[in-house]
Amino acid sequence: MPNEKIPIKNPFSLQVDPDLFKPATEEEKAQQVQMRESVSFMRDALRRLSRNRLAMVCVVLILVVALVAFLVPQFYPYSYTKQDVTSKYLHPFEYSAKEQAKIDKGVAVFPHIMGTDALGRDYAIRVIYGTRISLLVGIFSALIVIVIGIIYGSISGYFGGRVDNVMMRVVDIIYALPDVLIVILLSVAIKEMVSSSNNVLIAKLGAGMVSIFMVFGLLYWVGMARQVRGQILSIKEQEYVLAARATGASAARIIRKHMIPNCVSVIIIVAAMQIPSAIFTESFLSFLGLGVSIPMPSLGSLAADARSGLNSYPYLLIFPAMSIFLIVLSFNLLGNGLRDAFDPKLRS
Amino acid sequence: MNSKFLIYMFKRLGMALLTIFLVIAITFFVMHAIPASPFSSEKAKSDAVIKALEIKYGFDKPLGVQFLNYLWGVLHFDFGLSTAWVGFTVADLIMGGFSYSASIGFTAAFIAIILGILFGCLAALNRGKWLDSVIQVVTTALVSMPSFVVATLLLLFVSFRLGWFPSLGNQPGGMVLPIVSLSLYPMAYITRLQRSSMLDVLGADYIRTARAKGVKSSKVIYKHALKNALTPVITYAGPMMAYILTGSMVVENIFSVPGLGRLFTNSMLRTDYMMIMGVTIFLAFMIILMNFISDVLYKVMDPRIDLA
Amino acid sequence: MQHLLEVKNLQTTFFTPSGEVRAVGNVSFNLEPGKVLGIVGESGSGKSVTAYSILQILTHPGRIVGGSVKLHGQELVGLPEEEMRKVRGNKISIIFQDPMTSLNPVFTIGNQLMEAIILHTQRPREQARERAIEMLRLVGINEPEKRIHQYAYELSGGMRQRVMIAMALACEPDILIADEPTTALDVTIQAQILELMLELQKKLGMAIIMITHDLGVIANMCDEVVVMYAGRICERGTAPEIFYNPRHEYTRGLLRSIPNIDNDEKSRLIPIMGTPVDLLNLPKGCPFAPRCERAMKVCLNQFPEEYWVAKDHIASCWVNVLEKVGAPLAELGGQEAAQQMAREGEEAAQ
Questions:
Q1: pLDDT at residue B113 above 90?
Q2: Which of A75, C144, C245, C285 is the most exposed place for a label (fewest CB within 10 A)?
Q3: Of C289, C318, C322, which is closest to A32 when you measure between CB atoms?
Q4: Pairing of strands C36-40, C224-229
Q5: How many helices (DSSP H) and strands (DSSP E) are in chain A?
Q6: Which residues of chain C neighbour B302 with C-beta distances below 8 Å?
Q7: Of chain A residues 182-221, which have a CB less than 8 A from chain B?
């Protein structure tokens, strides 16, 4: 290597501002670090949920549907039972001859937004009532599942050992039963019993509703119970719980600080998934004629009735079909959003 | 096939038998809890006639004896006599209807599995691209539609409006719409399941190992990823069977297919308790059998699973 | 001079929904045949991503965005996938951190071993099977004829890592990349695995890239060392240089934080304060500056260039500039300049 290629000059002495080489202060250093703020799990999950635009649209949609379903019947001019032979099978916004005559006289007549059915009943109010049934079934079923599932699951998980063994065997057996078949069977039986007894409550609710709630109370909670138990068992063995115990945290504190927050995500996710399945089951039973009692409409029974004259009056199918589709879709998407937001495995 | 596996099989079989027994018991006692006699609904029958019928069908004996008799009969595939279809045994009627339901149901299941796995893989491999989005939107919509909505909409648009397929199941090509109605939901469900399990697997360390060995990416997918990603789908076999069998009650009615589902709804209308019990037990048996098969298959596919 | 492996200005970015993460930025190093190169750094420093980038087994959303990787002078970046596959497992192999999850659970050990052999050597099945058995015996697994029919879950962690090594070496690669091969193992097993690797290296003569956060492993095994922090190289050089003449504050910190038997037993270990940087919000200047005791104003604003600080030793730290040690890498003859300066320094000290 020829000698002149070696730079003789000190390569750093030129064009360097000595000020730059003064020590940096702690504040200056701290400025460089942008820490992401640390947030609690719940708040983080809720924030992630609120950022999920699709899920938020679904929340709004569900709230609007619920408001319509529960408020509109209060002031709606038509009742879901009122039959009118003169206004059979009116298309949406069509008026019967009698109503047209009234309008001609200058009397305001509220339009049949969704037309009327085979018995001349206003269809919009029937669809609204049907939607209300679907929502009620979904929410009450979720509540039943939450209450029974949490109690059963936490007892099993908390005590562990033999208690857990026996309780989980029961869960295994229930889990293996074909639930929809049993719902159908119970509905058939209850329907027969209703027709031969005078139990007002059951008669009013309808065989399908009673059997759905019974079966949810008897069978559907096992999924929730399993999840809750699994969470509690795994949390019990986590090092941080051992550490909390070792530092003298009380059982109440451990349950409040560790068990509940960890279970809440699972409970929310499972409950959210339960709602669409309950709505499905109810509409299915109603379609088979095992649901709510006549004349109370349900989306399933409306769709079933729409089958006669389907080709001429397709709107009788389209409206309840759209309604059930929108409700179940919203709950499904919300459920997905909740799962994404609350599943700690996905937390990154 | 080691001894551990055999022990697992036997345990699982015992569980299945216990479940079937429970279903028979539940079915029997629920139906017998109905206070009304199965014959009282039929018109113009004197008390004496009803009594005679009850003796003929064995309804006069104590409940426990009746149950044991019934259980004994079920073990011999004898579900008694139909009360609505006079002169037929429940077993004969079931087999008659089952031949229709089976051909629809198995075809639907087959289509759902094949297309579901295919679409699921396609979506996972194109994650974030338009194909994935389309598949996601369509399947989310499909799992939000009850079977009766799908079936009636298909009847209205594809059969009545477009006239592509007949509306009745007994006409040529009439089985197409019932099959499509029954397969859409499970197909969408399997697609979603397959997509997420495929995504899980594609992120696994052993996939990285395979790629690092220089294995072709197509082979990484169909050899290393697919076999692992299929296991969750196998667990869906049982629920799918339940969906298709109960869904057939609706779909067979809508398309007038003389299958098991239609038979079941007809026996509800005609309050034929023997039929209701028989069909319920038969359907439950099919579902439990499918659950058993899928559980065993699951262990065969994935040797990791603890055979406890 | 042609190196066995020449990595130059390698840049890899992960395009995540929350922003671009530059996991590897401007990484350069060379590897000579038969040598062991250590890459050391804490979690998230880009060690593993560097390895995956060399083999191009990055997963979505990671992508090489610049630089070059040359094997025997042949450029690998931009090579068609078909050609790249012939490199993976054949010329360059890798073993991973967690042997528990790195083997496919649904195929037998033999199946997975033979896959690579058949793929790269086109041997018939029977011969591939024999080769697999031979490899298992080589890595010290007893009854290999029986083991090839077993599944991964039937083996212990140490055994699985041996299988991984057997799989990686089956095609006699020129380079073995070991991505924290012992982190997930028990301490006693760790020593066995490292010993096995050195023994096999002597037998088969391949070069090893040893990725670890364990300086002890580096000291025991490596000829050359690359120290990484936040996806950047802090300094690189021969192992003695790095250990006895560290020229980057991060390396100095690392060395201060490990126990040393020679030290006074009352002397305390000094941890590096602060937390690793958030790769999504990298500081403008030197990524280590916020945690650096000797951070200067320039450190916060400007990334230090790489400088020769001695023959076979390159560092990028402003402290060297302050202390007037070394010459820029880019400048022609920088290495010699550094050498000369070091000599002058020694003379001055005498």
A1: yes
A2: A75
A3: C289
A4: parallel
A5: 15, 0
A6: 105-106
A7: 182, 184-186, 188-189, 192-193, 195-197
Q: What is the DSSP string of chain B?
A: --HHHHHHHHHHHHHHHHHHHHHHHHHHHHHHT--S-TTTTSSS--HHHHHHHHHHTTTTS-HHHHHHHHHHHHHTT---B-SSSTT-BHHHHHHHHHHHHHHHHHHHHHHHHHHHHHHHHHHHHTTTSHHHHHHHHHHHHHTTS-HHHHHHHHIIIIIIIS-SS-SSTTSTTTTHHHHHHHHHHHHHHHHHHHHHHHHHHHTSHHHHHHHHTT--HHHIIIIIIHHHHHHHHHHTHHHHHHHHHHHHHHHHHHTT--SHHHHHHHHHHTT-HHHHHHHHHHHHHHHHHHHHHHHHHHHHH-TTS---
The two beta strands, C62-71 and C74-75, are antiparallel
In the structure encoding, which two tokens stand for residue B91, read together? 């077993």
CA dihedral (C145, C148, C151, C152) positive or negative? positive
Nearest Cα residue in chain B from C177: B212
Nearest chain C residue to A27 by CA distance is C290
Instruction: Report percent pLDDT > 70 for chain B.
Output: 89
Cβ–Cβ < 8 Å for C35, C84: no
CA distance B214 to chain A (A): 30
Residue A333's CB: how many other CB atoms inside 10 A?
21
Q: Where are the domains of chain B?
A: 92-272
Q: Is C294 exposed, middle or buried (0-12, 13-18, 19+ CB in 10 A)?
A: middle
Start-to-end CA distance of chain A, whole Å, equals 54
CB-closest option in B19, B143, B156 to A332 = B143
Q: Quick one: pLDDT at residue B120?
A: 93
- Tokens describing residue B233: 């789908």
Minimum CA–CA partner of B306 in chain C: C153
Question: Contact C297/A12, CB-based, under 8 Å?
Answer: no
The pair of three-digit structure tokens given for residue B76, joined into one six-digit string: 């011999």
- What is the complex's ipTM, to 2 decimals? 0.83
**Residue B137: how many CB atoms within 10 A of its CB?**
10
Reported as a single tens digit per residue, the pLDDT across C291-338 is 888 888 888 888 888 888 887 888 888 888 777 777 776 665 666 776
The CATH superfamily of A126-346 is MetI-like (1.10.3720.10)
Architecture of domain B92-272 in this structure: Orthogonal Bundle (1.10)
Binary contact (C106, B303; C-beta < 8 A): yes
State whether residue C87 sits within 8 Å of chain B by CB: yes
Dmax of chain C from CA atoms? 68
φ, ψ dihedrals at C235, nearest 5°: -155, 155
Q: Work out the minimum CA distance from A269 to partner chain C, whole angstroms.
A: 24
Question: Do the Cβ atoms of C298 and A20 come within 8 Å?
Answer: yes
Sequence ranges of the domains in chain A: 126-346
